Amino acid sequence: MSETISGGHLVAKALKAEGVEVIYTLCGGHIIDIYDGCVDEGIEVIDVRHEQVAAHAADGYARITGKPGCAVVTAGPGTTDAVTGVANAFRAESPMLLIGGQGALSQHKMGSLQDLPHVDMMAPITKFAATVPSTERVADIVSMAFRECYHGAPGPSFLEIPRDVLDAKVPLEKARIPEAGRYRASTRQAGDPEAIERLADLLAHAEKPAILLGSQVWTCRATDAATGFVRSLNVPAYMNGSGRGTLAPGDPHHFQLSRRYAFTEADLIIIVGTPFDFRMGYGKRLSPTATVVQIDLDYRTVGKNRDIDLGIVGDAGLVLSAAAQAASGRIGDAAAKRKAWLEELRTVETQAYEKRLPRQHSDARPIDPYRLVHEINEFLTEDTIYIGDGGDIVTFSGQVVQPKSPGHWMDPGPLGTLGVGTAFAMAAKQARRDKEVLCLFGDGAFSLTGWDFETMVRFDLPFIGIIGNNSSMNQIRYGQAAKYGEDRARVGNTLGDIRYGEFAKLLGGHGEEVRDPSEIRPALERARESGKPSLINVWVDPEVYAPGTMNQTMYK
């Protein structure tokens, strides 16, 4: 008799071929044959307490490793619970595969347990969504889903696998099992050569250039190309999203607090891997007289919401390297002449920093959020992965916290999803056990998915968690006060005074309560030394708001 193989084992073989080392899951009867296959293929199974966490963890794994993440959930509510994580990955351009269970094909439209139209629901927030129609094609369609994850800008895919398709066994020779490295092409595009030449000319003649290095710089693993570009051409660089850390703090081309000034005064602005969405004022924050160049993996993003002078579709690393090389032979002494421009920006940068410094050193009680994020920034090492999960408190951190290495900054991305922190920490530590993982939560954000702190304890995934606790959804509270007055500022946004340090202890981790600013650093040190998942609950002043919160256009 010929050897047979089940659908679940075919899934595992396809995951192995893609290089997936772990799946994040919450168990269900529809999907357990995948677990059996993963055991045989040496793929780790991390079971969480909520499917949203599984999806966020798959997203986080992809960001950290550069390989696609994978979450496996059961049908119906298992899949709908994961929708938020998939949507977040979609807006953040993160390659992951969600596999959902489904009732048996033999019971199609009969009202089987947890039957829902998953594919219809997932199609708008994925690059590919499909049902696997037969056991023979399971591995084939899994590889197809991974292929689509990397079409243009990366993103998520979804597959539902009916229970009878997954559990059935077929002759091994009838199943198509794509071979690792042989079922999809390189996704790196070097950009239109004529456009590269035009960019080189613009760089050669610009007196006041500036560049924004966005998340695609990290997606493309283009750190070396980006740093070579800014240094060889003497261009000041700003970073956002996962692009943070491309240049280390203290690098002469690293700028952060002078971006608005630079984008007003520059004569050439290069936007790399960042859409003109709300974070960029839909492009309106750029000088109307500047020459604007946009570089992106996705053709549809280039020139969206704002006219540009030059658009280049391609891999950030290949495009920046080619442009730097092309410009090097024609730039003459233009790079040296930009010294005055960099000094001008450094003056603006220093003034902004010094204006805020008293609050960063404030001894006020309740604790000024600027003091908390300052202490966190001072605490980071070159091997600390920083994760931000919250509203107002994380807006404070965006001004102050500077990762010291590339790929060491994680935030939800443009969907603004709260609750990613525990899942991102889980994925980051599981994928990079050699790294320290630190996550700053708002108390509202932690509350959404915080029970999976226990998963971190169970799988021995130590991390340093800090909660900026103001017992409020303070970003929303500010908006309500601004719109409706202080007497209606606390409708629907006020939380209990929760001692999250005690919660951490309850679940087997390390926990502390901090009310005095002088105790922040010692508490962080003790968390580091504990070797456990930890929560340092820092009580911050609820009556102060981040400038970014107060400037949000939705409240005006």
Automatic annotation (TrEMBL):
Q: Which InterPro entries match?
A: DHS-like_NAD/FAD-binding_dom (IPR029035), THDP-binding (IPR029061), Thiamin_PyroP_enz_cen_dom (IPR012000), Thiamin_PyroP_enz_TPP-bd_dom (IPR012001), TPP_enz (IPR045229), TPP_enzyme_TPP-bd (IPR011766)
Which ranges carry the Thiamine pyrophosphate enzyme N-terminal TPP-binding domain? 6-115
Q: Which GO terms describe its molecular function?
A: acetolactate synthase activity; flavin adenine dinucleotide binding; magnesium ion binding; thiamine pyrophosphate binding
The UniProt transmembrane annotation reads none
Cofactor list: thiamine diphosphate
Q: Which GO terms describe its cellular component?
A: acetolactate synthase complex
Instruction: Using the record's annotation, list all stretches that form the Thiamine pyrophosphate enzyme TPP-binding domain.
Output: 389-538
Concerning CDD domains, the annotation shows:
TPP_BZL_OCoD_HPCL, TPP_PYR_POX_like
Q: Which GO terms describe its biological process?
A: isoleucine biosynthetic process; L-valine biosynthetic process
Report which superkingdom the organism of origin falls in.
Bacteria
**Family indicated by similarity:** Belongs to the TPP enzyme family.
PANTHER family documented for this protein: 2-HYDROXYACYL-COA LYASE 2, THIAMINE PYROPHOSPHATE ENZYMES
* Full protein name: Acetolactate synthase
User: What is the organism of origin for this protein?
Assistant: Nonomuraea longispora
